[in-house]
Automatic annotation (TrEMBL):
Identification of the protein by name: Dienelactone hydrolase family protein
Every Dienelactone hydrolase domain range: 31-153
Provenance organism: Blastococcus jejuensis
Swiss-Prot/TrEMBL keywords: Hydrolase
Stored Gene3D superfamilies: alpha/beta hydrolase (3.40.50.1820)
């Protein structure tokens, strides 16, 4: 008999509730594994929002045993990415005070919102702590979230804010000096580890930023390599950017598939001790 078509939508299986913190309210979509609550992970969407690919990453994490919370920071939940949609969403996000997309060494309201959401998720799931994954526009927000003691596994994939216009912004960590010092103290005293991913040729998430993060956090900054040297791996084009969602991450043997597996292993290592 022919197989029935899969008609599941990208938001199917996810529960929705508003969450307010730092003066902002966003819809938060949460899903737990079938066996019950698992270690908590806050997944921050990339521009233009909670696309089917972002939800696919969320579903992958749920299948791996994590309880995942995704705040709808921008865009329309479940909507497919198109160039026009991405441009219009980015334009709105760029001028929002919440994100301070161009500001250097900024205390961003969104980082406080994410910290509050991480605390909230930790209260629900228990365990030693929670993870936070940020991607592209939201990548640095995950690192700044590590000021919160409940955040034990921050992951920044292709962090692009502040936008790399000029050398100073390329080297900017994506957080304020206060946040930098608090995270550095946790690295020294608690063994906190921050994980980063980027394609070697990705100018939107500049290598200078990764070098600055290493200079600041030392061995507390762990980079999951993609390719070797300064060239993208085979199968990834010159302008490859989205490590965990669009770049063939579902293809076994592809470097992005292995990178996602390493992120999952990092979350498990830090959140199930």
């Amino acid at each position: 008999m022919p197989t029935a078509p899969d008609t599941a939508g990208p938001l199917d299986g996810w529960s929705e509730a508003p969450f307010t913190a730092a003066g902002y309210t966003h819809r938060v979509f949460t899903r737990s594994p079938e066996h019950g609550e698992g270690p908590g992970v806050v997944l921050l969407p990339e521009i233009p929002g909670m696309t089917p690919q972002v939800m696919g990453l969320g579903n992958h994490l749920v299948a791996e045993g994590f309880t995942v919370a995704i705040p709808s920071l921008f865009g329309e939940p479940g909507r497919d990415m198109t160039p026009g949609y991405a441009v219009s969403t980015l334009a709105k996000a760029c001028i929002a005070r919440e994100f301070a997309a161009f500001a250097r060494r900024a205390d961003r309201p969104v980082a406080e919102y994410v910290r509050a959401l991480a605390r909230h998720l930790h209260e629900r799931t228990g365990g030693p702590g929670v993870g936070v994954i940020g991607m592209c526009f939201s990548g640095g927000f995950a690192l700044a979230a590590a000021v919160e003691p409940a955040v034990l596994a921050p992951v920044a994939s292709q962090p692009s804010v502040p936008f790399p216009l000029g050398g100073a912004r390329k080297r900017d960590l994506g957080m304020s000096d206060r946040e930098r010092d608090a995270v550095a103290a946790r690295v020294r005293t608690e063994g906190l580890c921050l994980v980063g991913l980027r394609f070697p040729q990705d100018g939107v998430a500049p290598g200078d930023r990764f070098a600055a993060l290493h200079a600041t956090f030392g061995d507390g900054w762990r980079v999951i390599p993609l390719g070797s040297g300064d060239r993208n791996p085979p199968g990834a084009g010159r302008f490859a950017h989205n490590v965990l969602t669009y770049e063939d991450v579902e293809q076994p043997g592809h470097p992005t598939n292995e990178a996602r597996a390493q992120v999952t292993a990092f979350l498990r290592e830090r959140l199930t001790r």
